[in-house]
Amino acid sequence: MARPAEFVRRDVLEKAMEVFWRTGFTGTSVTDLVKATNLKPGSLYGAFHSKRGLFMEVIDTYAQNSLSRVSSCLLNNDSPIEAIQAFFNRFSNDIAMDEIGRGCLMVNTMLELATEDDEIRERITNYLDQIEKMFADTLTRAQQQGELTAEASPEALAKFLMAGMWGMRVMSSKRPHAESYQSIVSNMLNALPIVRH
Question: Which of 153, 168, 172, 179 is most exposed, with minimal Cβ within 10 Å?
Fold first, then answer.
């Protein structure tokens, strides 16, 4: 019986995620969540204890999905630099297709709640730090394979790539043309101290 329960919970989390993603934590009411998930208020509170409890689980689900996507992209290439290039090309295409400018749920939440909720800030910071470490590890491999200059700092470059991702996510609310994202990605990747053969 556990498997169907997990499926239902996952379905509820995905529906709640869409609401939080669209209107933010503060802008989402329990009524909105009840309507989206088709759960009665008692069932919602029984499963998640509160709107905040549901939101925290939504953030965890979204973050784990993001970590899996980044990891699979960065590890799916013998060339670390090509893996980073492929990731950012895919990333720019994905946000260009975000026609309503939703951006990233983690980034949106940091902008909304970071100064008000230490637990949420720390949780999201932990997930973002994991993504940054994936970049740093990939850049370290690039350096070991002679694709990145010996003088480069993988950790500093990873922060540079994260800043670019953040900027593009925030910029997506303006809904610029796809060419804008492609230009930014091109400039970011050209700024990496890659060894040219």
Answer: 179
Q: At which residue do the structure tokens 């509170």 appear?
A: 45
What percent helix, strand, coil does the chain show, rounded to 5? 80, 0, 20
CA neighbor of 108 nearest in space, from 71, 53, 69, 63: 63
Residues 114, 24: Cα–Cα separation, whole Å: 13
Kindly list the distances between the CA atom of residue 34 and the CA atoms of 45, 48, 62, 71, 167, in Å, as whole numbers in the listed order.
10, 12, 20, 34, 33
Q: Taking 50 as the threshold, does the pLDDT of residue 4 lie above it?
A: no
pTM: 0.88
Tell me what pLDDT residue 196 has.
80
* Three-state DSSP class for residue 175: coil
User: Can you say whether the dihedral through the CA atoms of 145, 147, 149, 155 is positive or negative?
Assistant: negative
- Residues of the chain with pLDDT > 90, as a percent, come to 66
